[in-house]
Specification:
The structure is a single chain. This protein has 406 residues and is an alpha+beta fold. The chain folds into three domains: 7-104, Butyryl-Coa Dehydrogenase, subunit A, domain 1 (Orthogonal Bundle); 139-252, Butyryl-CoA Dehydrogenase, subunit A, domain 2 (Beta Barrel), CATH 2.40.110.10; 263-400, Up-down Bundle (Butyryl-CoA Dehydrogenase, subunit A, domain 3), CATH 1.20.140.10. Helices cover 41% and strands 13% of the residues. The protein has twelve helices and eight strands. It has helices at residues 7-23, 42-46, 52-66, 86-98, 106-119, 122-133, 248-252, 263-280, 296-321, 328-350, 371-378, 389-400; strands at 139-142, 158-162, 165-172, 183-189, 200-206, 212-217, 226-237, 241-242. The protein has a four-stranded mixed β-sheet with strand order 1-4-5-8. A four-stranded antiparallel β-sheet has the order 2-3-7-6, with no helix packed on it. Strand 2 (158-162) and strand 3 form a beta hairpin. The chain starts with 6 loop residues before the first helix and ends in a 6-residue tail after the last helix.
């Protein structure tokens, strides 16, 4: 097995590195200042920031990536993407992760854009795709509801046709980044009498539409990553229906051939471990627990697991490159990666002993600006969202191991 780059891949990797070195704004080159970049919204928050320097950095980075089609590297060239191969996408994402460089476009690039490319009308593509690529419009996802999480098809937000409009009433929850977004794509129920997967439609709407309101949800780390979204007699034009009426479930599950190996996670964990070990031997040495020797093997385990996750990523991108669609393999990757996130955060926090309990990043007693204790708390829901790990284990058991359903 040879993971080395071909000559063409090595040249592309070097091109990505050069663009990052030459064009990445200083704002994104270091996270030494915990207040320099919004911890929750990142680039998407910067583009709407009241700080002119943040807005300028966000636009400059978006422009730099757009010159190469790298805002949407997996989109076909005819729609403004780079049309990269799976291996090129893997290399691009790996180099971005190594540099901690932010991606641009968020859910507009990864979810709404691919949906419009496959299911949208030409009018919808012409209206929305350019504004995603330019960074002018950011998108949020309206899927989950208070009573519809893992069983998403049980959603109850209603859309009723009224002439050339749809009238929408209901509620969504865990709407990530909606307070930084301009538009929302959502699944709504348009036929309550149909089987639950059938009577659902996919719609898009401007978040400034009358009747749409947001309520912030503060997580257990005291951050504001998501919201509740309410719809009270919200009227949207009928042209905002994407795909066929009552076939929205299948529209909403659409993805292009994106590089879905999650390589950035393995690189982030590996970099984080190395950064902590360097700090423990240097500026933060005074915070290290006195019996740290007992933890050395735990750090070794985390380092090995980060490499295992990297190889899971290579497996998936290799399947993609051969025209295969990862199924249970993607579930293994998600499950292992999310649980590794929790283990890395716990190990990092334990290494500081009682200093690992200090929450305030500005405290003189907080090693590495309290990074690990905050990550410890933030990591809790990672085994729940994007398909809970219980669901992933069911997929692995039935599709991967061929076990019977209970």
């Amino acid at each position: 097995m040879d993971w080395s780059d071909t000559a063409e891949q090595a040249a592309f990797r070097e091109q990505v590195r050069e663009v990052i070195v030459d064009r990445l704004p200083d704002r994104y080159r270091s996270n030494e200042d915990p207040e320099s970049v919004d911890e929750v919204g990142g680039w998407q928050a910067d583009r709407k920031s009241s700080n002119p320097d943040a807005r300028a950095a966000a636009q400059a980075w978006a422009d730099a990536l757009a010159e190469h089609g790298w805002v949407a590297p997996a989109w076909p060239k005819q729609y403004g993407g780079a049309g990269l191969t799976h291996i090129e996408q893997f290399i691009f994402n790996a180099e971005m992760a190594e540099a901690s460089a932010p991606t641009v476009g968020g859910m507009g690039v990864s979810m709404l854009g691919p949906t419009l490319i496959v299911h949208g009308t030409e009018e919808q593509r012409q209206e929305h795709l350019p504004r995603i690529l330019s960074g002018e419009v950011a998108w949020a996802q309206g899927y989950s509801e208070p009573g519809s999480g893992s069983d998403l098809a049980s959603l109850q937000t209603r859309a009723v046709r009224d002439g050339d409009e749809w009238i929408i009433n209901g509620q969504k929850t865990w709407t990530s980044g909606a307070h930084f977004a301009d538009w929302l794509f959502a699944l709504v129920r348009t036929d309550p009498e149909a089987p639950k997967h059938r009577g659902i439609s996919f719609v898009i709407m401007d978040l400034k539409t009358p009747g749409v309101s947001l309520r912030p949800l503060i997580d257990m780390a005291w951050k504001h990553p998501f919201n509740e979204t309410f719809f009270e007699d919200v009227r949207i034009p009928s042209k905002n229906l994407v795909g066929e009426e009552n076939r929205g479930w299948y529209v909403g599950m659409t993805l292009l051939d994106f590089e879905r190996s999650l390589v950035a996670l393995s690189i982030t964990y590996r970099r984080g471990l190395h950064k902590q070990l360097d700090a423990m031997k240097g500026a933060a040495a005074r915070f290290v627990r006195s019996d740290f020797n007992a933890m050395r093997l735990e750090f070794v385990d985390r380092a090995i697991e980060a490499e295992v996750l990297y190889n899971f990523s290579l497996r998936i991108v290799s399947m993609n490159a051969r025209g295969l669609v990862p199924n249970y393999e993607a579930s293994v990757n998600k499950m292992f990666g999310s649980e590794l996130h929790q283990r890395v955060a716990r190990t990092g926090t334990k290494a500081w002993g009682l200093y690992g309990n200090v929450w305030d990043p500005k405290s003189p007693h907080a090693p590495m600006r309290a990074t690990h204790v905050q990550d410890y708390v933030v990591s809790v829901p990672h085994t729940i969202f994007s398909g809970s790990n219980e669901i992933q284990r069911n997929v692995i058991a039935t599709r991967g191991l061929g076990l019977p359903r209970g």
